[in-house]
Amino acid sequence: MIRKSALLACVLALANAAPAFAGPIPQPYYFPNGSRGVKINYALPAACDANTKAAVDTINAAGRSFQLTGTTQNYTSTYYSATEDPDFINIQDGSSMSAIMRTIIYGYSGPAPAQAIDATVYVNTDRIYYDTGDTAQSTDLICGSSITPSNIGQHIDWQSAMTHEMGHVKGMDHRTDGSTGPCLMTTYLNPGQIKRSLCSDERALLVGFYG
Amino acid sequence: MRTRFYRTMLGSALLLCTVAASAQDQGGRSQEESTKAFLAHKRDVQQRRSGKLGDLADFGQVNAIVKAARLTPPSPRFVTDDAARSALNDAFLVDVAQTLSIYGLHAGDLRRSAEASTAFVQAAAAHIRGGATVGQEALLADTVVIGHVSGTDEAEQLDDGASSSVSVVVDQVLRGKAKVGDTLKLRRTSGKLPDGRRLSASDEDPLANGAPVALLASRSRYEKELAPQGGSARCPSCVVEVVPVFLVNGQSLVPTGGYPTATTLDALTAATK
């Protein structure tokens, strides 16, 4: 049974493998064709669900052979590590970490892009539930439907950060060209920045790979 | 929050079978329910942590000092209920006190002076909330060194939730017990699992052999949180990051892993005096 599964995994990996995009965005992982559900943990603010869904929709629009589904239909109170729930991408609380958000991908070993098996997105919810409410000073996360460059202050845009993490889920690493501008997969998202869409080369990578 | 990453395939399959029916397709939830879930999760995390703090009498004193510090209470815009805000404040203060203890700070350290007390409490609060300066992060680190990377080991399994060690040879000690020439093992989430597959964390940049680095790390947190109950004895040189390592480029310390703040060697040296 295990041998058959391993063989099937190898066949799927070969069937999906395609040359990595030759550009400034490494692609260490890919998910095979099909779809994967997304579960949001209850502890994440409900007020941010629409922004999370919008982030997933943005990434889904670039390459359709692998889609993330059910973003605001699946909720869970259970916490999963990246190795534990392969039918779903779990978005859950990762408070007490130094990052605002982090994605952990569980995947096969091998040359890039290697096949991903599962992924978990951790959100540092301390950075929103412990918000001081001080718009001018706070560097905490902010979400909602009316975030603009003029009212975001020094907050960090949830939707921008989540779209970036979903870019990781779909296999992209941080850009290596050192750009700090509007592109999604730059290493840094600064307070007050809104970066909710893919740059053309990022979209080209995903569309090229996922069709 | 660290979890054990490795499960056998059988264990994973059983776990999935038992939780799948209850964990999906449960429909939306209100913000009030989300806040309750956050607080319940916090209670669980804090309860687990409290069992790892060691000297509970000392922690009680740290807790009292934090409560007296009058930190700005949480006030998220989507929580309007006073009781929920009060509960968030209580959870936040416990987090600050636990953070100080996890990083090895005792009531005696905080009582050295009013300035020291305020500085440590503010540093822990900023570490949790974000926006801490490098100087504040350095206050929480018991190990601050300049060194160079001598390799990454993915073979050693220490059952501490980490999957690899980055070896850092110490060239200069700014704080801590390490000596020049010692090799510290920086434990990381990314790496190879016992099943041969890999974990990759988006906030852990690969570190090239020979790369000069500045490390703000904690042995105390490794001992108390990742490898408690004597597990840390298996690796006396293991540490974990307080913030992601900096790459040293002359006087400049360049952040990695998405950490937003660059600094300088002089500033770090001053912060560790």
From TrEMBL, chain A:
One of its GO terms (molecular function) is metallopeptidase activity. The keyword Calcium does not apply. It comes from the Bacteria. InterPro entries: MetalloPept_cat_dom_sf (IPR024079). Keywords: Signal. Residues 1-22 form the signal peptide. Transmembrane segments: none annotated. The keyword Protein biosynthesis does not apply. This is Peptidase M10 metallopeptidase domain-containing protein.
Automatic annotation (TrEMBL), chain B:
Residues 1-23 form the signal peptide. Keywords: Signal. This is Uncharacterized protein. The keyword Signal applies.
